[in-house]
Amino acid sequence: MKLIRTKLPGVLLLEPVVHGDHRGFFMESYTRGKLEELGLTYDFVQDNQSLSVQPGVLRGLHYQLSAKAQTKLVRVLSGAVYDVVVDIRQGSPTFGEWIGVELSEDNKRQIIVPKGFAHGVCTLSPNTQLLYKVDEYYSPEHDRGILWNDPQLRIDWPVAEPVLSAKDAGQPPLKDAEIDFVYREGL
């Protein structure tokens, strides 16, 4: 597995080794021991899967408060997404900065979204399925979000008028969001 660092510390892309031939392909999408060799020691406790039936579905920007925060390992099973991660750790040198990467069934890349970062995806193709592992159980009372088109963030989404849930359309901007993550150097 190849590890690719991003400009946001702790946000990592993973490229699996893919063995392909005339029949298709085989890959290990998750091997705890190989991640540990890369210094990644997460204890994933739950898998989540989503399906978006049309392009332009935007889910996010989501996070859970620190008491029940989740690290996520995200990959696309079918289709493609534009995946966005935003640093929401108060005091961080990269607070409010974001990265956007394409994850697809073709490139087979995965992204690690650590605690202290908000996450969102926008589908680029029909019938896109995501699978992501989390290291903490979902807690509705700790669930929070940031407005997808917050002018402070200026995220360059691939659509101007996405398909949103009522929840995501009504999220607050970053400046008004309830955030309890505090940056600590070295973590």
Automatic annotation (TrEMBL):
Function according to Swiss-Prot or TrEMBL: Catalyzes the epimerization of the C3' and C5'positions of dTDP-6-deoxy-D-xylo-4-hexulose, forming dTDP-6-deoxy-L-lyxo-4-hexulose.
Gene3D superfamilies in the record: Jelly Rolls
Top-level class of the enzyme under EC nomenclature: isomerase
Keywords associated with the record: Isomerase
Assembly description: Homodimer.
Listed name of the protein: dTDP-4-dehydrorhamnose 3,5-epimerase
Coiled coil, from the record: none
InterPro entries reported for this sequence: RmlC-like (IPR000888), RmlC-like_jellyroll (IPR014710), RmlC_Cupin_sf (IPR011051)
Keyword Endoplasmic reticulum: no
Pathway given in the UniProt record: Carbohydrate biosynthesis; dTDP-L-rhamnose biosynthesis
Superkingdom of this protein's organism: Bacteria
Family of this protein: Belongs to the dTDP-4-dehydrorhamnose 3,5-epimerase family.
EC number: 5.1.3.13
GO MF, one annotated term: dTDP-4-dehydrorhamnose 3,5-epimerase activity
Catalytic activity entry: dTDP-4-dehydro-6-deoxy-alpha-D-glucose = dTDP-4-dehydro-beta-L-rhamnose
